[in-house]
Write a structure and sequence with these properties.
Elements: H1 3-17, H2 20-30, H3 35-64, H4 73-95, H5 114-120, H6 122-125, H7 131-143, H8 148-159, H9 161-190, H10 192-215
Length: about 220
C-alpha cells in the first residue's frame, strides 16, 4: 500500500470514525442494562457490516472495469457523485447546526437487547446517509490499490477505532469512564449537526477532487 493510497483512505476512515450520532448510539449502548454483551454485539456487528460495505464498493469497482493505467471512468464518476452527495449533506447539516435536539431513538436504546443492538449498527453503515457512500467509495479506492487486503484492514482499524476504544474503556474504566462517556455523549448530541456539516463538506471535497482528477 503506497503513501498516496494512505493519503486518500486516511481522511475517509477518519470521516467514518467521527460519526457523532453513531458514537452517541454506542455510548447509550454502554449505559444499557446489559452493557457488556450489548457493547460487544454492537462492535462485532459494526465490524462485519463495515467489511461488507467495503466489499460491495470493491466489487462494484471491479465490475465497472479498471486498467493498469488507473481507475475506470465509471468508478471515477461514482466517486465524484458520492463526493457531490456528501457536499449537499454537509450544506444541509451546516444550515441546521443550531438544532441541538436529541433524536427520539436515543431514548429507546437503553432497554434494547443484544440482537436489537446488533441491528442498530446497520444504521451506522448501510442506512446512514453519510457513511454508506463513504464506505462504498472507500471500497472502490481499496480495490484500486496494489495491496487491497492491507488497505482494507487499515481502513477497518482506523474507521472503527472510536467504537472499539470506547467499548474497552467503558468495560475496563469503571465509574470514572462512565461519567466521562456521559459527558462526551451530551457534547456530541449538542453539536451533532455542526460536526456532520463540517465532516461531510470536507469528505465531499476530497472525493469530488479525486473523481474529477481521474476523469480529467
Amino acid at each position: 500500500m503506497s503513501g498516496s493510497d494512505i493519503a486518500v483512505l486516511l481522511p475517509m476512515a477518519i470521516g467514518f470514525a467521527l460519526s457523532p450520532a453513531a458514537i452517541v448510539e454506542l455510548i447509550l449502548v454502554l449505559f444499557s442494562r446489559r452493557r457488556v454483551v450489548n457493547s460487544i454485539a454492537f462492535v462485532v456487528a459494526l465490524l462485519v457490516l463495515t467489511t461488507a460495505a467495503l466489499l460491495l464498493g470493491s466489487l462494484g469497482s471491479n465490475a465497472s472495469g479498471s486498467s493498469d493505467s488507473g481507475p475506470s471512468t465509471v468508478s471515477s464518476i461514482v466517486v465524484a457523485v458520492f463526493g457531490l452527495l456528501l457536499l449537499v449533506m454537509g450544506v444541509v447539516n451546516w444550515r441546521n447546526r443550531a438544532d441541538t435536539s436529541e433524536p427520539p431513538v436515543f431514548q429507546t436504546i437503553a432497554g434494547m437487547g443484544p440482537a436489537a443492538v446488533a441491528f442498530l449498527s446497520l444504521g451506522v453503515t448501510f442506512i446512514n446517509p453519510k457513511n454508506l457512500p463513504l464506505l462504498l467509495s472507500a471500497g472502490s479506492v481499496i480495490a484500486q490499490t496494489d495491496a487491497p487486503l492491507m488497505a482494507g484492514a487499515f481502513f477497518l482499524v482506523v474507521g472503527t477505532l472510536p467504537y472499539t476504544g470506547a467499548m474497552l474503556y467503558s468495560l475496563l474504566g469503571g465509574e470514572p469512564a462512565q461519567r466521562r462517556l456521559d459527558a462526551v455523549r451530551a457534547w456530541l448530541i449538542a453539536r451533532n449537526r455542526l460536526i456532520m456539516g463540517v465532516l461531510c463538506t470536507l469528505l465531499g471535497l476530497v472525493l469530488l477532487a479525486k473523481g474529477l482528477t481521474a476523469l480529467l
